[in-house]
Design a protein that fits this description.
10 helices; mainly alpha; MetI-like fold; about 0% strand
């Protein structure tokens, strides 16, 4: 449809949804305020679901006593070690599967066979293998992170336009130069999207591993509060997990902006 001045309106902006400034924070704040209002009005029974104000008080006491930082520090250390091991191994295997025919069949066969196994069910087995200490917890997280990383890395490599690879080959670029300058940048969006998934998986497995055998950690704290029916501290632990996920998601988002500015 033409405008009155005879010019055709531009309709080729593409599909590029943007994050509205403040929309995420406003949504979370609105939900918390609605929750607090329901608790204050008696609509939400605080015996079973404490009000946000009570949870904030519990978090304050935990932080003031130093218990919050001890549990959070132990969990973050396990998360960093387990996620890093699983990610590095998954990237290596994913690159091999995506680049080499000799590795694709065996690699995907192993991933397809082991990926559907619930990782939480393997925690007792890892305790038998690696002991009740940190080794079993790191192995649980690494095992859970490994398979999604392999899949996202291999899928990202497969999604790189083959025309770009053929163009690089036509200029007689070495194999590893093509990998570093064409394939890896093209696969990076899928790899970073996989990081968002694996971080969430790692937090879930972290809590499960700490609930089974740990004295320190957010999972152990939540389990202890639940056994005592201390719902204020129980929800405070869950809030800590939620904040951990939000912070890590923000970090990955910043990483995407830094590495994927060319898009």
């Amino acid at each position: 449809m033409r405008r009155l001045d005879g010019r055709v309106p531009f309709r080729g902006g593409g599909f590029s949804p943007r994050v509205l400034p403040g929309a995420a924070a406003a949504t979370l704040i609105g939900l918390v305020l609605l929750w607090q209002a329901g608790a204050s009005a008696g609509v939400i029974p605080t015996l079973f679901l404490p009000a946000p104000a009570s949870i904030a008080v519990a978090l304050y006491h935990l932080a003031a006593s130093g218990e919050l930082w001890r549990h959070l520090g132990a969990s973050l250390q396990r998360l960093a070690i387990g996620w890093s091991i699983g990610t590095v191994a998954g990237l290596a295997v994913g690159l091999a599967v995506g680049l080499f025919s000799v590795a694709r069949g065996p690699g995907m066969a192993v991933v397809s066979a082991l990926f559907p196994i619930p990782k939480i069910a393997l925690v007792p087995l890892f305790i038998i293998w690696f002991g009740i200490g940190e080794g079993s917890k790191d192995a649980t997280l690494a095992f859970g992170v490994f398979f999604p990383t392999v899949i996202s890395t291999a899928a990202g490599i497969d999604a790189v336009p083959r025309g770009l690879i053929r163009m690089a080959q036509s200029f007689s670029l070495p194999f590893w130069s093509i990998v570093g300058k064409v394939i890896l940048p093209g696969a990076l969006p899928a790899i970073l999207s996989g990081f968002r998934v694996t971080v969430s998986i790692a937090i879930i497995l972290l809590v499960a591993a700490e609930m089974i055998g740990a004295e320190r950690g957010i999972g152990a704290f939540v389990l202890s509060a639940g056994n005592l029916y201390d719902t204020d501290n129980l929800l405070a632990g869950i809030v800590m997990l939620s904040l951990m996920g939000l912070v890590l998601s923000w970090v990955i988002g910043r990483l995407e902006r830094a590495l994927l500015g060319w898009r």
